[in-house]
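fwd from M.: "can u put these together and see what the complex looks like"

so here's what she sent:
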Amino acid sequence: MKTIKIPAITLSILVLVSGFTEAKAPVGIVIHGGAGTIERSQMSAEQQQQYEATLTDAVNKGYQLLAAGGTSLDAVIAAVTLLEDSPLFNAGKGAVYTWDETHELDAAIMTGQDRKAGAVASVSNVKNPILLARAVMEHSEHVMLTGKGAEQFADTQQLELVENSYFNTEFRYEALKRAKQAKQALPHQAAVLTDPNWKMGTVGAVAIDSQGNLAAATSTGGMTAKRWGRIGDVPVIGAGNFADNSSCAVSGTGHGEYFIRYNVASDICARVKYQGKTAATAAGEVMRELLAVGGTGGVIVVDPKGELSWAFNTPGMYRAKRNAAGTVVEIFGNQNEKTSN
Amino acid sequence: MKTIKIPAITLSILVLVSGFTEAKAPVGIVIHGGAGTIERSQMSAEQQQQYEATLTDAVNKGYQLLAAGGTSLDAVIAAVTLLEDSPLFNAGKGAVYTWDETHELDAAIMTGQDRKAGAVASVSNVKNPILLARAVMEHSEHVMLTGKGAEQFADTQQLELVENSYFNTEFRYEALKRAKQAKQALPHQAAVLTDPNWKMGTVGAVAIDSQGNLAAATSTGGMTAKRWGRIGDVPVIGAGNFADNSSCAVSGTGHGEYFIRYNVASDICARVKYQGKTAATAAGEVMRELLAVGGTGGVIVVDPKGELSWAFNTPGMYRAKRNAAGTVVEIFGNQNEKTSN
């Protein structure tokens, strides 16, 4: 009988390589730019191209970091920062107007390996609210800061500050005027929003990195014509943003009040954790149940196996995802997936 | 063969009475006045008597409404309003001081049959923040209002407004001075709270009414020496307050940042709903897991069968419960239940 001798050093290398390969999770990222009444008939080819180009840039920016061994935290921050800087979406530069014709922005970040979280609400002078949310998570003892207090904290964090007028856009101002007209015609008690676009355009990203760590980031200008210091689902951890390595990471967009009442993000992860469902199945269930009670919107999810998916109960959602299998960029509902590499 | 004739009217009454009896759930209420380092050695007999008397008054007030056929919503509001009006607890009158020597109060309410919710944060001039949370739920299209905006909304709601100095108490001012001294001695990055009492004293109530509907209410002055518009778990629906007829109702108290990151209230209810655990079992699990990651506090829970319970990972928690079986009022840990009727 012949024995094969393998030098100890070769064995060590084999073990090392094998161990390293096993530790590498399939990296991936999903992003969204809001869900709502987005229909092909209402969008010019040029507009569609603009949205698709920005979504592609954002998903690529995040993916490149992941592919280079970066963290899911850095990847979702990079993607969301890019979307905040675009006037196309209701976050950062493109934030909607409040009733008082100002802008109040909200954002949240969460990391799945340690369930650390940071959230800011009603911030008016920070160019990239998602960076402030990250600073809250990393450099304060708190999770959620709001208003002037949050801005005082921002002052200590070397973040880029801007005048509130930086967020002015003609397109959003017209939307405010329409919203105010419609609202003033309604009695106070019945002041229910009728135009889903008033609350559309939140941006978000979820990702998994090579260490298998999940992260979720979400940023929004909130609801057009919002009043009274209204806070939506984005900075409410578990409603519009959530990450937990033992279940999934979620970023949501839609009618924030419903996302809060139904704990959308954490309910999806609870079904994964306690019922053994896939994140995709859980997300689909929760969005169907939400619609049944009147809540519209969508979510993007990633699970610890690296499965990337989305679910929405609106006509469309700006969305993109990228992993080793390729890139998908979509806007309208029921699209055949267009995969490109 | 002899037939027994029952007049139609009698049958109708029998059906009516039987139906009515079946619809009656066992009513009950649980309340808390905060969890923390509450030890017998640190409390005089007189102090203990004061706390026990106020807890008894609050639980009785809520229970009497329930016994008379009132709603769980009215019962938890009545109990929490009474606790807010007492200087003993860190809510309403007894609210702690912020870093800037003011008071910023948070509160939340949720009803289990429709998952409606209302929350307010950083409110400085409303005598009973829990009543403002209820007004947000019932009279606005929003779930969460904050700061000056929330106060503008309060102005439209016929609520009792007070000067911020109404919340001044000598006892809390001394606590602020101690907290600031301790914090200023620490480098910013390490500004971790060391005195659990700084964040103690939140009040809350959960109840079930004769219709089987659950409700949860929570109110707090937050964390002593809080800064930067910090918001804790109370107004974050799913963190410190939650109600859902299909699982349970929870009110929490403790280190708010941990309650947010671990979605304490909704995680307890998710375990009931998706794992079939009792609310008491789920609450015990979650509080043990929270302690393992460094989070201290406690919760009170009620499930749709009317089981009343609590769980806390601190030395003590101000707490009381009442149902047909009697009344229990406790402060310290490991107490033998004292039941009285």
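replying to her w this: DSSP finds nine helices and 14 strands in chain A.
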